[in-house]
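Lecture 7 notes: from sequence to structure.
We start with the chain below.
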Amino acid sequence: MPSLLKNRLTEDVKTAMKAGEKLRLGTLRFMLAAVKQQEIDTRLDLDDTAVIAILTKLANQRRDSISQFGAAQREDLASKEREELAIVETYLPAPLGAAEIEALVTAAIARLEAPTIKDMGKVMAELKPHLIGRTDIGAVSAQVKALLGG
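Predicted structure tokens for the same chain:
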């Protein structure tokens, strides 16, 4: 199924171009280029889940850059990265709260009847599509491990 998010990015590039929004246009083009590069590399049309994974990676790169520029006392560069991060985040799903994550984890464990740590892979595979771009998967993994007695 073609990505609605990719189509939205394409339309927003055109809108930003017409409006003369240089920073937004550059950021959107960069995002769209990352999606198209992944499509070329995999020779597949990406769905929204794959596009969200790419955008999440781009957002994480921006966060890393912000912290590095802050440590180097380059506020001008950190500021630009913050603006780009805000644009990328508008295309990501709303972050999950702690209660929502806990509910997803407990429901997946119950649904899969996963009583032991040996079932962690199955539980994480079940959860991952619901978590991409919405929370730190490593933190959820730790939570699953704790609930399974690991």
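Points to note: The mean pLDDT is 91. The CA atoms of residues 63 and 115 lie 36 Å apart.
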